Amino acid sequence: MIVRKYNIDLCKGTGLIQESLLLFEVYVNGMPRNELTENSIKSNLLVKASNKRIKDIVEVAFYKRYIHDNPKVPLYLNELISHHVSLDVLTQLFFIYTSRANLILMDFVTMVYWPQVQKGVLEFNSTFSRKFIAETIRYTDYINGWSDNTQKRVSSYLISTIVDFKLLDKQRKVKPVFVYDLTANYLAHELHFNGLSDMGIVNSEEWKLFGYSNFDTVKHLERLSFQGNFILQNSGEIIKIDWKYKTMEELLNGLK
Known about the structure:
This protein is mainly alpha-helical. The protein has helices spanning 17-26, 33-43, 51-66, 73-82, 87-101, 103-118, 126-139, 148-164, 181-193, 198-203, 214-225, 248-254, and strands at residues 230-234, 239-243. The chain has three domains: 9-100, no CATH class; 102-164; 181-254. Strand 1 (230-234) and strand 2 form a beta hairpin.
């Protein structure tokens, strides 16, 4: 069970898509975070960033998103990058990992952004995120000790983050979201290899990051099953999936 405690890590970096791509280029499996920080500073990898900014990007953002829970994630993503997977797909995968590491983002998108979009809201600003934070403080124990200034900053960075991940355009207007087959295939397999049951995969809240209902998820997985990476059986009440690949590495090799 995930314990809901919100951090302020988005204040240190929002989407960081280009920065993450650069760090994946130089990251070596098992490299300690301080070594990656030092190498990034010495090589001037993030050209316009100060030493403190580089440290925050590497140690607060990159490591927490892509290494802390599963050190193999950089191997998976680098494999996709080596296959010249589109930036749109990588951005969606980065969005998933960033949301896992920042549960405030996960909850804001699934509990505020998409319900508001479904009501017809066409434009977002920090009023929505500020209200979300205020209500979270009032009704839960997910946030502890945030000053008014911190609340304002996190509110602003939440909106900036969903701009980075293409839910909003630069004018903060809602953009249509299309879940790519590779994104869905990767996520379904990763959830499977993380130990979720077939029904657990369908019910995962991570599909909701893209506005999916359970019905949408099942329909997308049914479509993917015709590509040959797994066989899905849907009785209406129970989902059963026969998986072709035994590891994420096998899956990624099969995508070549």
